[in-house]
Amino acid sequence: MEIIDWYNGLILVGLLLSTPLFFFKNPYKKQHLITFLILIVATILEFYGTYTYLRKINNTIAYNLFFVYAETLLVLWFFSSILKTNISLKVIKIVSITFIILGLTFSFLTKDLDSFHAIPFSIGCFVIITCCIYFFSNLFVKEWYTNDNLLTNPIFWIVTFLFLFYSATFLYFSSLNLLVSIDQQLNYILGTINRIMAVLMYLGMGFSFYIPMLVHRTSKLS
Fold it and tell me: Where does the chain have alpha helices with state H?
């Protein structure tokens, strides 16, 4: 197994795709910055995870800090930048602070950072899924982005990828203790599916902001 495999290699591609966008005119600058930070965290973490795994070094602390907590908070920051009501912004702020307190409390009570924090992560997944559903419902109820073609809207695609990944991940990690005790081959298959969903999300974060540019250029050529 090499340091760069298909999984962290494709996450790196997502980061590389995202980088040139800083030099283009982009009406979604804040959202791009947040997704870029998510991609940086994910890329560094997965390369570190592979490096330590090959050397049989416990990397669970890093995944708890950066995947469970830091990445979840970055995704909530992303939602705070796109949800358009004051009450939703306040709720996200309260939920983010509560999630930090939950993490600190869970770490203090269990005194165990060497085991994956499946319970806080499952709660974080549930919150993100709820934000996705709230976003989708308001596309129809309050007619957000009515002047845009949703198929060319990068925010729509990123939220869609977030929803798919965190829905699959919520089911996977909330059942982690059960999966450990069942057939290892099935556990491996489910884990691979979860990684494929992660790759799609990270590639979507890197590519989605190009869609309006490509559509605009195509329409000018035609």
Answer: 6-18, 29-54, 60-62, 71-82, 86-110, 118-141, 154-174, 176-181, 184-207, 211-221
**37 in a structural domain:** yes
Domain count, the chain: 1
pLDDT in tens, 6-50: 999 999 999 999 999 999 888 899 999 999 999 999 999 999 999
What dihedral do alpha carbons 13, 14, 19, 21 form, nearest 10°? 130
Domain contains 21: yes
Alpha carbons 204 and 35: distance in angstroms, whole number: 10
* DSSP-based three-state secondary structure for 179: helix
User: What is the domain range of residue 42?
Assistant: 6-221
Instruction: Tell me which DSSP letter residue 175 carries.
Output: T
Structure-block tokens of residue 6: 């298909």
Residue 215: per-residue pLDDT = 82
Listed residue (196, 201, 207, 203) closest to 152, CA to CA: 207
